[in-house]
Amino acid sequence: MSDMATERDIRIANKPARIPLRFPAPRTWWLCFAVSLCLLILFFVAATVLLLEGIGVWGLNIPVNWGLAITNYIWFLGIGHAGTLISAMLLMLGAHWRNSLNRFAEAMTLCAVVCAGLYPILHLGRPWFFYWIAPYPNTMTISPQFKSPLSWDFFAVLTYLTVSILFWYIGIIPDLASVRDRARTRTAQVLYGLAALGWRGSAWHWARWRQAYRITAVIAVPLVVSVHSEVSLLLAAGPIPGWTSTVFPPYFVLGAAFSGFAVVLMIAIALRHMLGLADLVTARHLDLLARFLLATGLMTAYGYWVEVFDTLYGGDLQDVETLLDRVTGSYAYTYWSAVIFNFVPLQLLWFSRVRASPTILFLVALSVTIGMWFERYMLVVTSLYRDYLVSSWGSYAPSFWEWSLYAGMLGVFLTPFLLFVRFLPVISAFEVKEALRETGDLEHA
Amino acid sequence: MRQLTGKTGRHFWRSLEELWQTPDGRRFMASEFPALARNGISINRRSLLKIMGGSLALAGLSACKSDKDEAAYPYVSTPENVTIGEAKWYATAVTFDGYAQPVLGKTFTGRPVKLEGNPDHPMSRGTTDAYTQAALLGLYDPGRSQSPLHFGEPAEWSAFDAEMARKAEEFDRTKGESFRLLTGPVSSPTLLRQIAAVTARWPKARWHVCHPVSDGLQRAATVQTFGRPLDLHPAFDAAETIVSFDDDFLGPGPRQTRNAGLFADRRRLRQDAKGKTRLFVIEPIPSATGSMADERLPASPVEIDRLLRAVAARVGVAGVAESELTGRQMAWADKAAAALLAAREKALVLVGRYHPSATQALGLLVNDALGSFGKTLRFTDPVITVPPGRDDSLKALVDDIQASRVSMLAIIGANPAYTGAGDLDFAGAMQKVAVRIHAGLYQDETAALSHWHVPLQHDLESWSDARSVDGAVTIVQPLVRPFYDARSAHVVLENLMGRQANDRELVQQTWRETWRENFDARWRQSLHRGLVDGTAAGFLQPPVIHRNVADADGPASGLSLCIRPDAGVWDGALSDNAWAQETPRPLTKLTWGNAILIAPKFADQLRLKTGDQAILTAGSVSVKAPVWVMPGQNEATLGITLGYGRRAEDSIALGLGCDAYALRRSDSLWHRDGVSIEPTGTGEVIATTQLHQAMDGFDFVRTVHISALAQAADHSEPPSFYPDRPQQDPSWGMSIDLDLCIGCNACVTACQAENNIPVVGKELVAEGREMHWMRIDHYYEGDVEEPKSYFQPVPCMHCEQAPCEMGCPVNAAVHSIDGLNLQVYNRCIGTRTCSSYCPYKVRRFNWFDFTKNDAESIQAMRNPDVTVRSRGVMEKCTYCVQRIAEARITAAKDGRPIRDGEVVTACQQACPTQAIVFGNVADPNSAVSRRKASARDFTLLEEVNTRPRTTYLARIEDSAEEEATG
């Protein structure tokens, strides 16, 4: 290991800590931030209208009394899972290359979980009573109904949010200290200092920190599986054709990982481009993410196939009818959009040259994100619009205020994420350093 | 100015406005400065309505007071003192199309909250139709006319009285020359007595009747056959074979309750294998009767006449010339005739009252040939009295107006400017009359053209009398003090003669004259029972005096149009009634509008599908409306219903549907030949509650052939993962007999009234957000040209293994120990999981706050025993849990178990065929348990294994093809 190389590596590794203090792309950032602030305002407008007028401003009805809100709830939560998987699971597996990705993936998880958590509350008929789902001592002497998947949804999202915050925060503490040390202004020193919880980098600190970080990771990984299995039960527990299927939990978890990796890939490429992080988020990282995307995508495709096979093998008239509705009915476009967006561009990832091209990777990931959204929409709507009795068939089209809330929710997602990008180290500097020390040279890794 | 002169000291009146504050002052102003009074002095409409709203609540309270001169007698117990929260029942009637619909009104502290059929009245037997249920909303309707209008401006009754007094003097001099009175159909003995008094006092005055859904053609047929006008009274309970030539006797109308009840009696005999009954129906437009038929054949109006001739010839009516029939029709005629001949005097042939009188007369001759007179078909004198010698009364009036023979026209309880046939142009003619007076419940099209509009009282707030379809008189007693500054039709008629009167005294006078003695006791008893003894019209045995059969019409010229009353709003009389508007029409499930009904094959030719707009042209008149593709309709016939295309500005019906009256001609009110239809290429929003009606091979409605009735059925339940619910005694359950349901919507509207169910309007119905707890699904099965048609009422199934209960995170959907699947509104946070999981989709969600902005009068109408739901909560059928609770409390007080039949749900109570039975399923001897033990019992979506407490009895099929194939 030459001195020259070490110096360069340290410069690279210190880069993330310098970004919040001397931001490299202020103009792009401000542009993005302005857009996301507009979206955030739209969110507040849409939510206000919703809260004042009632859920009727949406396009829901009987039979389709769940629509865009539940679709987006599942979608956002699914996206979030990739952050946890990348961070916690790869940490436990000792995959050091994760260090370039985990910080912003975790931040993305946090933002996504917040969005996912807001949706079920806003979609309630009486959102101001959302806390009745929680088991708290009350004068009404009633407790939640624990057979309901919704009770467990509540716990799942809340637990997941807590653990995600902890995991992300514990992970960022050493870097906050690093930023503190480099900060020039007094305000920045105080703020970063407070956030760093008095981190001095002593061996005790590191030992305690490592314990805490690993324990949280061990808790977080099974949560991915349990939370999204739980979410799938929201549909699968109902005796509705197209929902009541045992394949749903694994199918949902894999789909969640699939959509999440797609979003991580998109963010990685965007940040790499915007902040000039090509040295840190290298071609190898993109290649690995693409492989993950391909793998989880193929597993999700298997889920699709199993669902169809299951229905046809079971031969239940109502189930077959629902399958036909999905494939040929008035919402067939959602099914075929899901299939095409999810799995067709994905096949490009078999080629290593494609995996080396950030632009194509970005487009494939975008396609998957859209495809997975269609899949959630398809699952919710096509089962409800035609269930058992033909007399209660209906149709559903999201209203203006539903779309507004969706666009606004992207603001809720992007605004804190952009603030994170601007003010916190987007890449785990100390872990990169650590990795460099252990492996010798990042370039050769 | 008494109020000024009477005061001493400094009591100056500062302005006319101050003077206007007192009624006396207003009266003074009205007489002194009519022009000023007409414009009103800073009484804006809004503040007036506010005051009226406040007075409503007071009106309710003031009715608690028992007033000596206006004693109304409660049905069950005399009001020693009123207990708050305890309902009182009064027998009265609401009029529908001139006929009394006998009801018991349930009132809480002076507020009527529900109407039930009068069980003591043979025409009701405790049941009602949907119109009668909706009458309650009519009483509370805040859109009702509330004060007199003079030239469209609020006016005082005193000004009206003054003008009428002047007019009366004038007519006394001219003997009523050029005075015309126009009323709706009248059966009220008091009103008839008053009208007779008018024509006696002013011999040159004339009385006309405006009856848009009149029985004129049926009367003409009886005149032709018997030489006198008669009403027909088919005895469906005695008929073994019924052949209906487009007579929708089970369909909407004033006779529906009676007919359906008798029809169901006969069907029950067939179910128990104690009697035969087969129904043949031939009709151009599918109807409720057609869907109950064992054999049904679609045919155009002209073909119906030919088929009747064929049947007549086969049963031996002399002098019938047969015309050409297709092979299928010939076979059908053979089959029907054979069945008729087999039944002989137990056969019944009916011809629709909208068909030409010659056709109907031939129908009478067929009955005569079969010997059914007096057995299955009986006659009485007409219940509705029409002006002597004026069958086309309205046309005669228009002719008189055009000939300048009318100087004053008083219209009471009719809306001829809207309901007049298109070719009469009544609205145009009316404007030639110098003085035009209109008394009505609403400021309708006729009111807009009148100089004076005076508000009439609703039946439920006034004294009157009326005859039901059997002729029996019910004395109409008010359930509540009048809400608004309105008068009864009887009083207005007295006003026209320059007199003041009291409606109660007018009615009493009639009966004092009729009874002569023992008045008080008889009056009291009549009010008590809701029926005046001995007033039912006696059956007559008129000899047939005319047996000539008219020649058949020539071949039909092109496309024909059938105009029919609407199953929701009738002739437009219920246009302003939101319950009626939102009631899904039995076959189309259409709400808030009408449509051009068209046969599927013909629609295909024109490339029209349901919801496409088309122009319908008859003669020189065209209307634009959406089309509805109607399976089972005759290909050469279009259908349309009356009651839409309203033009009154304040009406909730403004802008809905198209006006079929414009297509009518006074000489052919019900059928037009040679019409044409042209697609416009655009679509219209139609609000239907059921988008898909084909059963698609599923077995939601099950049928059993009559030959297989005796076979035992397997009632074992499939195994379940869930533990069985413990069965308490009582455990509630329901059984709905699909062999009896005629899809009439009485249950739907009764449920709406009982359970404070809001209406949501056309847009929200179109979005799938209707709130009815009870719905009647309608299914077709088989060939789209001639499908079988079934009704299936669907309340909550009250599943024992209810998915909704599992889904609810906050314990809002719970199971009660007596087997009810309950919804606890104040726990509900609106996740809607219960509805997503419900296989029957019977749950309804409050998408907005549907109840908060209700007018105060609507709030006063609500059933105090049922929670009013707010925004964001789920609701659904409760099996009328409030009625169960009431029975439980009564039984507990008496220290006994709840008796079978003690709990009657609102839907069950209203059902004219008693298709719904409710009771304790834990008691094997209860009526509902006996029904559930039937071989016909089946569970909707049994395969989902939710173990519903509501089950169905399969429809019985008795068609020859079924037997051959199945």
UniProtKB/TrEMBL annotation, chain A:
InterPro entries: NrfD-like. This is Quinol:cytochrome c oxidoreductase quinone-binding subunit 1. The keyword Transmembrane applies. The keyword rRNA-binding does not apply. Belongs to the NrfD family. One of its GO terms (cellular component) is plasma membrane. Keywords: Cell membrane, Membrane, Transmembrane, Transmembrane helix. The lineage of its organism: Bacteria, Pseudomonadati, Pseudomonadota, Alphaproteobacteria, Hyphomicrobiales. The chain crosses the membrane at residues 28-52, 72-95, 107-134, 154-177, 215-238, 250-271, 292-313, 333-351, 360-385, 405-424. It comes from the Bacteria. It is found in: Cell membrane. It is a multi-pass membrane protein. It comes from Mycoplana dimorpha.
TrEMBL record, chain B:
It comes from the Bacteria. Residues 732-762, 818-848 form the 4Fe-4S ferredoxin-type domain. InterPro entries: 4Fe4S_Fe-S-bd, TAT_var_transloc_signal_dom. Pfam families: Fer4 (PF00037), Fer4_11 (PF13247). Coiled coil: none annotated. NCBIfam families: MoCo_extend_TAT (TIGR04519). This is Quinol:cytochrome c oxidoreductase iron-sulfur protein.
